[in-house]
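Final report, Chapter 2: Outcomes

The project's central promise was a pipeline that accepts a single protein chain and returns its three-dimensional structure in a standardized token representation, suitable for archiving and comparison. That pipeline is now operational. To close this chapter, we reproduce one record exactly as it appears in the project archive, with the input sequence first and the structure output second.
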Amino acid sequence: MSEQVHTIHIRKLKHEAYERFWNLRRYYNASSWADLIDKITKEYVKQIEEFDWI
């Protein structure tokens, strides 16, 4: 199976949501939208794993 590239259609977002995505991208120091999603997903997985220890 070939690797697929996923895109985020940010142009159709409301202005507030668009600004939040850009702020998140700066916060995570992400080089692209895909990198941002990857970093958020990894952080989420890390938090779930830490929660399992409780």
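Archive annotation: Residues 33-53 form the longest helix (21 residues).
This record, like all others produced under the grant, will remain available to the consortium after the project formally closes.
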